[in-house]
Amino acid sequence: MTQGKDCAKFFGHGLPYADVGDLKGTLITIEGTDGVGRSTQVNLLREWLEVQGYGVIETGWTRSELMSETIGVAKAGHSLNQLTLSLLYATDFADRLEKIVVPALRSGFVVLADRYVFTAFARSVVRGADPRWIRNVFGFALVPELTLYLKIDANTLVPRLLRTRGIDYWEAGMDMHLGTDLFESFRKYQWRLIREYNKMAREFGFVTVDATLMVEEIQARIRRRVQALLEERRIQALAGSLDRLRPLLFEAEEESAGERPEPPVPQGIGSAESVAEPRVARAPSRD
Prior knowledge:
alpha/beta
């Protein structure tokens, strides 16, 4: 990770054409594999933050107005290779970062991202991409203040998905030819993804939350971590404001002292005007 000229932290080279200075908002990302319950937790967290008085902007994977439809059509053909898929995701992410994430952070919003660049890292690496290459591709991405990782194992995930919804071609990793059986391919693919997420959790310092718990308990743990972060950010902002105001206060005090008039000299005993002039001795009269 690198730090840009505007003190913003990036995963690589940053955004050379966009102003990212003075980002007052907070970027929080929620990561985890397919069907782990990210969207549910993001919605609950957004509602809670809005009740607390925060302005919240939500963004998610492949939701760019520029690319979302294109990616959907491309994936429907089941013929994308790893390189094309990664570049489509990168284009979608860049569009959302420039048009949604950075403006919202500059305005002081809390930005909740349902998936972030870590999804691209995991999916590309399990498909054989060079980890350094995919991280360079997303080198323009801002580093989030907090990444919450909903952790689950593949064996628990399969029956959960079957109870709630089906499994599609890409979630099962069928493009990787791990097997002809959809469910077995899904288990193998998800196991590889989860292994990559666990590696990144250690590397990037994810806050891990047990995704096998009840929805309410998961949300409670997420809220505690988010509340602590926002409180810390608020204290930092107050300290920064005081640091900027302190020189102005001292300057005002110095100017006030310089303009203060000299106190008047009291008239009366001890004053120069009250001291009688000494009498001059007269010569004796000759008369």
